[in-house]
Amino acid sequence: xxxxxxxxxxxxxxxxxxxxxxxxxxxxxxxxxxxxxxxxxxxxxxxxxxxxxxxxxxxxxxxxxxxxxxxxxxxxxxxxxxxxxxxxxxxxxxxxxxxxxxxxxxxxxxxxxxxxxx
Length: 118
Description:
Elements lengths: L1 E6 L2 E4 L4 E9 L6 E7 L6 E7 L4 E3 L7 E6 L4 E6 L8 E8 L8 E2 L3 E6 L1
Parallel strand pairs: 2-11
Antiparallel strand pairs: 1-3, 3-8, 4-5, 4-9, 5-6, 7-8, 9-10, 9-11
């Protein structure tokens, strides 16, 4: 199975930037899709961005133009660069991994807290 470990969260002022990292290990197959979700208390997790092993990306409208997702297949790493952060971006951010024919996310990271102050 695949294990995911996130890092890079923290406290930042509005307008600032953070870079989240996700390290994948275990039985990684290609093709695959990795992505980032975020969640606040009492709400469903929402999809932020995805990237395939071929580096095709999708970005949620709410963060498009501010966030970028990238990956390094040789290092089994995926990144989320977050610029121009807003207080509404405050959430726990989770890395996710999915293989072809999966009905949903196969593996989740433990989450990393991002807090944006006004």
